[in-house]
Design a protein that fits this description.
Number of helices: 8
Radius of gyration: 19 Å
Structural class: alpha+beta
Largest sheet: 9 strands, mixed
Shape: globular
Number of strands: 15
Distance between the termini: 26 Å
């Protein structure tokens, strides 16, 4: 699907949207991003995404040059230019990127006086219905999640090589998603999502210090679970916890709550999405679509 792109306040079609080869986001991967989707034409949990964007950029000493209100306006202007976001049948995918900006061939942040702000908008394409009805296969991949002492996973960085290598390995094995371990051998997260296992009707997800990105949907699910009467907790998880779970699912902004019914060659539960997963997805969708 064609995208519409806002580069520093100017809107282009995807064929004409460019940044300089001297942008440090391109040269050194210095940048952060957020991915959002709309429900009923509104970016869902926008304020939470902006707070995480600022948290990530702060860890890079990268200033966000515009206010949340101005960034919201840019998102809406770009959506309008794309002809998206005017109702539930015309939802939008939104990606906001912030880079260090154009500068000399130097690691010195002072070489880049003006950050680059990009908004990419395209149609939101939900996974097919059978993904939610039947579940998907995930694979435990050997790619280790970034050590927090190197590239801190708390930073939602534009530098996604770690995730890309893991996702490519999962795809080679025919899996919908890949599960990554941390340097201690604990389960951390999926390549583009947060992982949950269900045991004895409790949904468990690795703690933040397992080396994962604090997902917006992950955090939202704690609230959803509380309202639905389903315990959602953090717990250190290892391979056996995943392979012997009653149910497995993962969460992401663009896909919501996705059931996983097979891990590599291991069938989870009875091979179909379980009752806890279904209940949490239903509660999530109810809250998400209630915004107007």
């Amino acid at each position: 699907m064609a995208a519409t792109v806002n580069v520093n306040g100017r809107i282009f079609d995807q064929e004409h949207a460019v940044v300089s080869v001297f942008d440090h986001g391109f040269l050194y991967g210095e940048g952060v991003y957020e991915t959002m989707r709309t429900f009923n034409g509104r970016p869902f949990l926008f304020d939470r995404h902006m707070q995480r964007l600022r948290n990530s950029s702060g860890m890079l000493s990268l200033a966000v040059p515009i206010s949340d209100a101005d960034l919201s306006d840019r998102c809406r202007e770009t959506m309008r230019a794309a002809g998206l976001g005017d109702g539930p049948a015309n939802e939008a995918y939104i990606r906001v990127l912030l880079t260090r900006g154009i500068g000399e061939l130097s690691y010195d942040p002072a070489a880049c006086p003006v950050p680059t702000v990009i908004v990419i908008v395209k149609p939101q394409i939900d996974p097919p219905a059978e993904v939610y009805e039947c579940g998907v296969t995930i694979a435990i991949v050997p790619i280790v999640r970034n050590h927090p002492g190197s590239v801190n996973p708390l930073i939602k960085s534009n530098n996604l090589l770690n995730n890309a290598l893991a996702a490519q390995e999962a795809a080679r094995r025919g899996a919908f998603e890949g599960v990554m371990r941390n340097y201690r051998g604990e389960l951390a997260e999926c390549t583009t999502a947060n992982l949950f296992v269900v045991k004895n009707n409790v949904a468990l997800t690795p703690p933040i210090d397992a080396g994962l990105l604090p997902g917006i949907t992950r955090a939202f699910l704690f609230e959803v679970g509380s309202e639905a009467g389903i315990p959602v907790r953090e717990a250190v998880l290892r391979d056996d916890d995943l392979l012997n779970a009653d149910e497995v699912f993962f969460t992401s902004t663009t896909r919501g709550v996705v059931p996983a019914t097979r891990v590599d060659d291991r069938v989870i539960g009875n091979g179909m999405p379980g009752p806890v997963t279904k209940a949490l997805r239903q509660a999530y969708m109810k809250r998400a679509t209630a915004q107007s």
